[in-house]
Amino acid sequence: MIEADRILEPVAPDAAPIRGLREYTDAASLADALRGTVAALEHSLRLLLRADRGASEDDRMRAMSQQELPFDRLIERLRSRDRLSIELAGTIHELRRRVETGGSYWTPGPSDADRALEVVARLRREVHALEDAPVRAAAHQAVVDHAIVEGASEVPAAPPRRPARRLGVALVFLTLALALVAILLSRDDPMEEGIAAFQAGDLTEAAEHFRAAVEDEDEDATPRLYLGRVYRRLGRHAEAGDQLRRAATLAPRDADVRRELGYLFLDLRSWQPAIEQFELAVEAEPEEEANWIGLVRAMRLGADPRAEATLARAPAAARALLARETDDNAAQE
User: Fold this and answer.
1) Cys-Cys crosslink for 210: which of 4, 103, 138, 194, Cβ 3.0 to 4.6 Å?
2) Directed axis angle between helix 162-186 and helix 110-152, to 10°?
3) Residue 130: its pLDDT value, please?
4) Mean pLDDT across the stretch 270-289?
5) Buried b (16+ CB within 10 A) or exposed e, 150-171
6) 0.70 surpassed by pTM
7) In CATH, which superfamily holds the domain spanning 190-332?
8) pLDDT (0 to 100) of residue 153
9) Does residue 319 contact residue 311 with C-beta atoms inside 8 Å?
10) Angle, in degrees to the nearest 10, between helices 86-100 and 71-80
């Protein structure tokens, strides 16, 4: 069976490039996020082929190698196995072409970010559908078998013990069918639905699903993080603060929660509290570039004298992005 979460890990909602599609601050950072998203999409597609036990051994062996299995042939292999819809294959091709032909002076806009998020959301839906397919087939077969057994009860009189046996078999198949259907229904959980709505840009619907997830898992920080993130983007800062403070209580060393609190304080122009939250995020995950980027931005906005020294300690990718921001600001002045 295909493990959707493993295959979709490169395009998870909190993966750096996907987060960048939502949190970009200028054309340069958006271009970086789009390039990263294209690479992440290809990585997920290669993991999908590697996980496909029905594919040839040769294809599965070469799945992770760009040299031995170029992108176009990767798409062909997945299409031939019905692992990828023609519509999704086309949109991925178009996004990849757009990014690759953009060049050094490419200036992407919000519509490019929206389009990329739609592609990611569609890939998530299709891979989850592939994961569900065997369960759906088994449930369908169980229902069919149950109907066949029920029909057998209309056959003329059989030896005395057969009817009871048929009834027992029928109950077994019916129980199996109901159990499998229950498994399928359980996959439509509020978090998955909320994430899909969030990636599609429907923040109002996403908030509804995340509120339901919070009610289901009151002691889990993750639904509160997502709900706080949505509230912040909707401009509902007080509600965002309530959710994020509760998430921080539940998971005090969660860098994502601290970083989101930092951005909330930046929205409120509260520089020092923002700096403190980003510092906690860096302490929790010092290798995460986004933590350093938020910290340096907050320090610069708050005229903190440590800003440039902090920048010098940041990962190279964070330094490069922040350097471009400095150049762009200087050019505008």
Assistant:
1) 194
2) 170
3) 84
4) 94
5) eeeeeeeeeeeeeeeebeeebe
6) no
7) Tetratricopeptide repeat domain (1.25.40.10)
8) 46
9) yes
10) 170
Those residues whose C-beta lies under 8 Å from the C-beta of residue 147, and which sit 6 or more positions away, are none
Pull the structure tokens for residue 333.
């002045």
Dihedrals phi, psi of 253, to nearest 5 degrees: -110, 20
Q: In angstroms, what CA-CA distances link 79 with 76, 87, 89?
A: 5, 11, 8
Name the token pair of 295.
């910290």
Beta-carbon contacts of 48 under 8 Å, excluding residues fewer than 6 positions away, are: 2, 7, 78, 83, 84, 127, 130
Provide the mean pLDDT of the chain. 81
Beta strand spans in the chain (E): none
**C-alpha 253, offset from chain centre:** 22
- From the number of C-beta atoms within 10 Å of its C-beta (0-12, 13-18, 19+), residue 18 rates as buried
**314 near 322, Cβ under 8 Å?**
yes
Two tokens at 111? Answer: 């519509």
Domain borders along the chain are: 4-126, 130-186, 190-332
Q: CA-CA distance, 134 to 52, in Å (whole number)?
A: 13
Q: Record the tokens describing residue 226, joined without a space.
A: 């997502």
Q: Phi and psi of 268, rounded to 5°?
A: -90, 5
Token readout for 250 is 């539940």
Q: How far apart are CA 180 and CA 174, in angstroms?
A: 10
| Sequence-distant (≥ 6) Cβ neighbours of residue 38 within 8 angstroms | 95, 96, 99, 100
Checking 79-83 for CB contacts under 8 A at 24+ apart, the result is 81/52, 81/54, 81/55, 83/48, 83/49, 83/52, 83/130
